[in-house]
Amino acid sequence: MAQGGGNGGRPEYDDMPAGAIATGAVDLIAPVDAMPGQLIRLRDARLAADKPIEASPEDIEAARLAICATLRTRLGHDFSGYKDKTFLRRVQRRMQVLNIAALGDYVARLERDHDEAVLLFRDLLIRVTSFFRDSETFAALDRTVMPRLFDGKFADGAVRVWVPGCATGEEAYSLAILLREHMDARHGVPKVQVFGTDIDEAAIATARAGRYPASLLDGLSAARRARFFTRSDAGYVVAKEIRELCTFSPHSLVRDPPFSRMELISCRNLLIYLDADLQASVLPAFHYSLVPGGVLVLGASESISLHEDLFEPLDKASHIFQRRDVRSPPLRLSGWERHGQRSTARTMPRETPLNWPHESTRVEADRVRSLGRDIARETAANAHRRDHAGDRPPPRAGLLGALKRFYAGSADAEGVRDLRETRDRLRAITEDHEAALEELRAANEELHSVNEELQSANEELETSKEEIQSGNEELHTVNAQLSEKVDELARANSDLKNLFDSTDVATVFLDRHLIIRSYTPAIGGIYNLIPSDQGRPLTDIASRLNYGGLREDVEHVLDTLEPLERRVSRTNHDIHYLLRILPYRSPDSSVSGTLVTFVDVTTIVRAEQHQRLLVDELNHRVKNMLTVVVSLASQTLNRSRTLEEFSEAFMGRVHALTASYTLLSRENWQTVSLRDVVTEETRAYQSPERANIVIEGPDVSLEPQAALAMGMAIHELATNAVKYGGLSVPEGIVEVTWRLQPDSGDPDLVLDWVEKGGPPVGPPARRGFGMTLVERGFPHELAGEAKLAFEPNGLHATLRAPLRVPAPAAPR
Amino acid sequence: MTDCTLAGRRVMIVEDELLIAMLIEDALVAEACVIVGPFASVSEALAAAKTETLDVAVLDVNLRGEKVYPVAEALAERGVPFLLLSGYGANAVPPDHPDWRAYTKPFNPRDLAAILAEQIRPGRDHTANDRPG
């Protein structure tokens, strides 16, 4: 308590009270005349130990924050998010223990005393725990949750369970036992890990040891106790097979980032100690930690009401919840923010512990308290005197006396005071030294743990880095493969496009409803397709074909899945196509449409027509020829006296015909040379010794009709000459000469057959068949003329025919 | 075997192949026919078909690459019966004149005479009197 403010006015010398106030040890600041009442009230409050703290809500809040700050500075844990009532109950309990009535005193004590900070910390972390606590919950876990954890998992899977706030590990071990039992009932069980974490490292150490007094094992059945624990001198030790499933580590739910990929989180009776704000940030952290469909188990009086968007009840009675499959809200890393603050607090202490200039005021304070007691006593005495004496002595007399004694004491005990002062100062220095040492030690420990954390974080980073590197390499490989595939695809596409562009096979790809999917450029001769026609039915587009059955044919192919072929031609019959409709098979070999191709078979069709014409023509010629032969035979027979005569004449004529035909067929029925015809027909009579047959004339080509008529005429003339004329005697000769005689228009061919040196001839009494053929043949077949002059020297035949320039070969 | 139906009839022969024309001639001369022709080209035959007095005609279908059909039409117009003669056989009958008769080469000359005689039997008798005006 210090003097200040109020009705009593400011103290005359305010250095001293101000200094006292500045220590932070002053709980109350009051004017002098209010002080007695305050002091009495304080004394009464100390007596009422079990009553709630009497202080204004603001003061309580200030004290709470101060305590939290101290704990944060000294131990690195932030309790500011704990529920006020719980927190203050713990503080009050400590105050009772220490016999401290005022919150301020306790705050001061806490600031001074590191041990007290640790004690309060331990007190705040209440643990009421045992194995299989709340058997109903475990029954529900056994029934509902455990099968879910294992179902669909095999030896390569993992089941991860997290018990935040595990304290001394009973809950974690209980879950491990349950998991173990389910593992035993299955084959090919996944890897099971139970993580127990707590901020209390001492508790974690206990959990790691796994040694428990027998009393804690009350919740265990005898069978479980026998199977999963071994008896030791002071109690029971968790069996190795259970211990190996569990990993315990210090971890703050508030401060540290959450674990991840958990299947089950059991966090019972922890949230109740957290205020709504902190609960609201812890639940999203759990949501983040859990795999989709993961399970959260809370305590009996805890709920997910703050985050029903993240969790839904699985077993409401047992407070088992399931993670909703929604996106985790961004982690409100309040713990991390506070962590940062803590770091600042750690490096820059909020208050300087040694406060030399004001340290002496503590002594002064003691004296002020003693003065206060004196004043109170005087006041009480005065009151007593007034009551009993009835008069009213000056009230200030007693007070002045007390003040005199106060100052006199100061003056008299100057030396003693110095001594005491020095001693106190020494003591204070020692205390501060110890506090500083403690702080250093704490800082050292923190540094150690920070170092460890850093190391493990570093290792994790290394691992992550390696994973990322290998992931990166994989990505590189996959990317390379992908780009190779893309290149291949582009090449194949380009090949295909070139093929499409180059092929004359007009192709349209249709879907099941005759909608055009794509086409090749060659289709342009059949359908006037433009790129925007893709997506339209082919039947909507006018074609140049004499073909109306496309829809029916396509439907038939889709029904039967058999290819269909059809000959179609363009409307003007200039181009013929072989139409093929084939089912279009998708890569999954389902039929998703049809492929319509048009192969230009015009040349084949033309060739077929041509061939048909040729066959007809050949047929005609052969039959004509046979008729000619029949006629030859008939005529020759009529004019033959003997069979020998007939045979000779007939065979000679047939041979003559054959010779002309041979020439014509050699020249492919185009034209033959006149010289060749004459040479060929007279060959049989040419003398090897002398030039008995003279053949002379320009090169002239004869068309087949003329060649045949000429050949027959020369044959008959030669036969006649051999029998009766120039070639019937050894010295006779025949001169065969020809010329082109320009007439009006096309020239005439004029051929002279002149026999010399033969026996004298006169006109025959009767024309033989041969001469008839010569005389009638030229006019009849060639629109020419044949003159036979039987001159004394021999026969002079003149054959004239218009020389038709042969038309280019064309089938008739 | 002679058939008096043909005797004295004027028969036009249109045939570009001389030897075949002579064969037909021989057959018809044997039947005492009067031969008109033979003609080797469509133009000559057409002129004769329009001007000559004819009882019947033998027409080779293919005359130096030309079809004889105009001649046949001219004869049909005048009511002169005729017989198409061709190596094409029945195919030589044009589709638009399915009633025309055709005879195939090669042929037996006597059969040819009989077939010709059929063309001018009573009922479809054509005398030499109906000359064109």
Describe, in plain words, how this protein is organized in 3D:
The complex is a heterodimer of chains A (812) and B (133). Chain A has 812 residues and is α/β, with parallel strands linked by helices. Chain A is built from 23 helices and 24 strands. In chain A, strands 8-4-3-9-10-12-11 form a 7-stranded mixed β-sheet. A 5-stranded antiparallel β-sheet of chain A has the order 14-13-17-16-15, with helices on both faces. In chain A, helix 20 runs antiparallel to helix 22 (704-723). The radius of gyration of chain A is 66 Å and the shape is rod-shaped. The model of chain A is unreliable at 22-27, 333-360 and 806-812 (pLDDT under 50). Chain B is 33% helix and 21% strand. In chain B, helix 1 links the parallel strand 1 (10-14) and strand 2. The model of chain B is unreliable at 123-133 (pLDDT under 50). Chain B has helices spanning 18-30, 42-51, 69-78, 109-119; strands spanning 10-14, 34-39, 56-60, 62-63, 66-67, 82-86, 102-104. In chain B, the strands form 2 sheets. Chain B has a 5-stranded parallel β-sheet, with helices on both faces. In chain B, strands 4-5 form a two-stranded antiparallel ribbon. Chain B has 133 residues and is α/β, with parallel strands linked by helices. Chain A binds chain B through residues 616, 619-624, 626-632, 634-635, 638, 705, 709, 773, 776-777, 780-781, 783, 812, and chain B through 16-23, 26, 38, 40-41, 62, 64-65, 86-88, 91, 104-107, 109.
